[in-house]
Design goal:
Elements: E1 15-22, E2 25-31, H1 37-46, E3 64-70, E4 73-80, E5 83-90, H2 95-113, H3 127-143, H4 145-174, H5 179-232
Antiparallel strand pairs: 1-2, 1-5, 3-4, 4-5
């Protein structure tokens, strides 16, 4: 497909060709190789599913991704807000590298041209000013491919954990336990625990009060007995002198 000594080439030949298009009109492209990949990429662009590109409005929706394989190369597309971003890569190139390049290209192009002249530009009219920029993005991604690959893998793992957590929450809710019910149950448990603690405290306080009352009562009885004995000079106050 592409000439230029592919066999045994390093990362410098991972990314073969890239372009930015509005609809099916290629606005800017870049490649250092010769071959029929621009024609194949154009055919792939024409065959993308109808309505797959998000509308060009301010919101734009989420990007759509497509990938095609041909002659040991992959044709990778990212569609967003009416624009198509494409990169042709060798089949052996890690998928994350192509994904990172397309994301970088999209963000930079929209920052430069979003809502501007790109909306009315003619085919290939941005080649001169944006073609070298595409080259720079290619080089950056190739130079940082290992770092990018690791970062995207970590992000994928985080996303997987997040999805598992959301799935567990949905299963919990699917059992009829809404968040409000869970909160109510938590409140009820706390209330019951407070009641139990309150009963224990009241019981303990009552016992302590009873002990104090019994002690006071015992002291009073002892005083009465002492007074009785002192007055009657014994326990029998019915004795009279003769």
């Amino acid at each position: 497909m592409a000439s230029g000594g592919e066999e045994g080439a390093g990362k410098g030949e991972w990314l073969i060709y890239a372009f930015v298009a509005r609809g099916t009109a290629v606005l800017a492209e870049y490649t250092e190789f010769t071959g029929n990949f621009p024609a194949i990429a154009a055919q792939c662009l024409q065959r993308l599913p109808a309505g797959s590109s998000a509308s060009p409005g301010p919101g734009g929706g989420a990007p759509a991704r497509f990938s095609y394989a041909c002659d040991r190369h992959t044709f990778n597309f990212l569609l967003h807000r009416g624009y198509a971003y494409c990169v042709v890569a060798k089949e052996s190139v890690p998928k994350n590298v192509s994904v990172a390049f397309l994301e970088r290209l999209k963000d930079d192009f929209m920052k430069r041209y979003g809502g501007g002249k790109a909306d009315t530009a003619l085919a290939k009219s941005l080649n001169k000013e944006y073609g070298p920029v595409i080259k720079q993005h290619m080089q950056y991604v190739l130079d940082h491919s290992d770092e990018i690959d690791k970062t995207l893998k970590v992000q994928a793992q985080v996303s997987e954990v997040k999805n598992i957590m959301l799935d567990n929450i949905e299963k919990t809710l699917g059992r009829g336990e809404t968040l409000s019910e869970l909160q109510d149950k938590t409140s009820d448990l706390r209330s019951q625990e407070f009641k139990k603690q309150g009963v224990k405290i009241r019981r303990k306080t009552w016992l302590q009060n009873m002990k104090i009352k019994l002690v006071i009562l015992g002291i009073l009885l002892l005083l009465v007995i002492i007074v009785w004995v002192s007055v009657c000079q014994g326990f029998d106050c019915t004795k009279h002198e003769t």
